Amino acid sequence: MTIAPVLILGGRSDIGRAVAHRFARAGHPIQLAVRNPETVAADARDIELRHGVGVSLHAFDALETAGHAAFLDTLDPLPGIAVCAVGLLGDQAESERDMAAATRVMRSNFEAPALLLGELANRFEARGSGTLVGISSVAGERGRATNYVYGSAKSGFTAFLSGLRNRLAGKGVHVVTVLPGFVRTRMTEGMDLPARLTATPEAVAEAIFRAVKKRRDSLHVLPVWALVMAVIRNIPERVFKRMRI
Amino acid sequence: MMLSGWGRYPWAACHVIRPRDEDALRAALADGPAIARGNGRAYGDSAMHPRSTLDMRGFERMLDFDPGSGVLVAEAGVILGDIISTFLPRGWFPLVTPGTKFVTLGGMLAADVHGKNHHRDGSMRACVDWIEVMGPDGCVERLRPGEERFDWTLGGMGLTGLILRAAIRLQRVESGWIRQTLIPAADLDAAMEAFEAHAGARYSVAWIDCLSPAPALGRSLVMLGEHAARDELPQTHGGAPFVVPRRRALRVPMDAPAFLLSGPLIRAFNALHHARGSRAAGTRLVDWDSYFYPLDALLGWNRIYGRRGFVQFQCALPLDASRDGLSAMLRRIATAGQGAFLAVLKRFGPGEGRFSFPMEGYTLALDFPVNRRSLALLDELDRITIDHGGRFYLAKDARMSATTMRAADPRAEGFAAMRREQGLHSAFASAQSERLAL
Ligand SMILES: Cc1cc2nc3c(=O)[nH]c(=O)nc-3n(C[C@H](O)[C@H](O)[C@H](O)COP(=O)(O)OP(=O)(O)OC[C@H]3O[C@@H](n4cnc5c(N)ncnc54)[C@H](O)[C@@H]3O)c2cc1C
Ligand SMILES: NC(=O)c1ccc[n+]([C@@H]2O[C@H](COP(=O)([O-])OP(=O)(O)OC[C@H]3O[C@@H](n4cnc5c(N)ncnc54)[C@H](OP(=O)(O)O)[C@@H]3O)[C@@H](O)[C@H]2O)c1
Predict the structure, then answer these.
(1) Which fold has domain B57-172?
(2) A129: in domain
(3) Which of A45, A50, A186 lies nearest to residue B86, judging by beta carbons?
(4) What is the pTM of this model?
(5) Which residue of B20, B60, B62 is in closest CB contact with A49?
(6) pLDDT one-digit tens code per residue, A74-100
(7) Domain containing A205: what range?
(8) CA A128 from centre of chain
(9) For B317, which DSSP code?
(10) What is the largest CA-CA distance in chain A?
(11) Domain B177-405 belongs to what architecture?
(12) What is the CATH classification number for the domain harbouring A230?
């Protein structure tokens, strides 16, 4: 049996590249989908050299939802596994002032990734096999003052993924929801993150690789986050609304 | 953030930046003196500067490989161990390697590192086709062997510019195994004779017991090595010549208490090691990882020297003064009874380059925990080295003075002058270069 190609949507992100390396190390050919393929040409070569697998580059813009179907048509073959790392943290204060900025954050974290994975899901369903991995966030588990625009979009994405999983169970298509806490990447560069709660992109990649192999439904990369979020979810709203966390 | 080298001495609060691309490097250079840092395996303060330390490990891509010639093009932050795990299964091994695989390509080039084959193959520069270096103005230039800036950069300890990429030639090997021959040597003379008698061996190095007094002064185990050919492997390995047993890495969990390194304990350890080695004399197959990188199996072993850290002394002595110089040092070390956990003796081939460390003769390297007595002893070893026309390895140094450096290495003045003339001194500086007035 040939090893299934893995499509990385958002293949220039630190997490996306780490995931590509992890699957390539296990022999999977890689399809890197990014906005500007020339920016990842050297990364593609690096993956090929280190792991001896083929890497193809694909241009796409997740926000151009009308082009999703045409973009997916260019993938040959259709991947066996698709990992979506597309996301945009944005700036909460700006999102509060500027509707266009908020719209971009909402679309980049919910609408665009959801529609893209939805379209892929239909194709996987038709084929009767495949795994979809959506990288959402713990930020979607409860809205907080400091990042609720981003968080609400991730929340929508998480719900979308769980619905998709429900719909496709028994149809040969598996859906994995990844809910990372803090990860040291370009997105969080310069932020002062607590070491014990912060994962590396490589750790996220390893966790995703295992989750795909074991067909897990959902994971927090660092187990401690499950606990942290359980606490946060259970704080009564009348207390929570006055907290600054 | 607080930074040190591998020896965990000295420490300094440094502003560390991890640039992602050349533009970020350029922006950092516009901000005053900076120094590149690889994987921090230099022992002292070569790869740190309080004002701006540039962590080069973000540049970690392999860019090209020619399976015909074995030429690898890679970015400077690529780790040596990754080069080996990628290319050994395809029959290629680095031509020159230091005693740890946790170094970056940039660090190997900047220190012009030497391996156990220096007497035959030379230092790192021997396998370099070209390097690309960013100068003070942010311009990137490709430099080749024979060019003056290339020559200063190999061994220039990051003080001539930022190495971005390099093309290095790997060597063909038929297996991941080394045929190792152990030769016990009763004293220093016997060890040196063994080196001279086996000048044709691919790899040679000696583990030397620095604490045993005369008549066994310089008692050693000389270790020779050759890459094993495929048909030398036993049947069990022959089918998969590049597969070696995976070593279990252990991690040193905390700083060891100082008494572990007291003189009597180390003396006992050294004697035991020698006795073991003598019994194992002869030839056997050893996997590449255990052969080249014995210490890498103990992650964070630098912590066994305790909180105060340790320093490594490494000098090179010219051939005609090696015997006298080495015996003087060994006598001094043996009487002082200071803990030298690791002592390594090696024959160097001819020196090359304008500022590289190796010179034809012998090199001795040993570790000391940081304390007043061993620092005093190190000053004495410095003097013995200078008296015998020797010099010191900057990748190990953490403590010598600018005066000592000048006395040992007349090339230092020329290096400093070149840096001034070419406007490099205001762009590239490390804590070490400031200490040594380079
Ligand atoms: C266990 C052990 C064994 C060793 N054995 C040997 C040995 O056998 N032979 C030997 O020669 N050395 C040996 N060394 C020393 C080591 O090989 C050198 O110190 C090497 O330079 C470390 O590489 P690094 O990537 O960690 O660089 P760092 O320690 O981070 O930096 C070392 C120097 O390289 C410069 N540098 C790093 N990257 C760049 C870059 N991209 N551009 C410009 N300058 C750069 C730094 O400015 C600094 O001056 C050993 C070290 C250890 C810990
Ligand atoms: N870092 C964290 O702490 C953390 C925590 C939880 C979840 N996450 C999630 O993890 C995922 C990966 O993020 P990261 O941390 O690796 O940060 P990142 O580097 O900022 O990754 C985000 C990626 O999304 C891509 N992208 C954004 N809009 C796009 C569009 N319209 N079309 C195509 N690609 C688009 C970006 O492309 P460009 O490279 O072209 O800009 C970028 O590669 C994101 O979904 C993020 O929300 C991160």
Answers:
(1) 3.30.465
(2) yes
(3) A50
(4) 0.95
(5) B62
(6) 999 999 999 999 999 999 999 999 999
(7) 6-240
(8) 22
(9) E
(10) 57
(11) 3-Layer(aba) Sandwich (3.40)
(12) 3.40.50.720
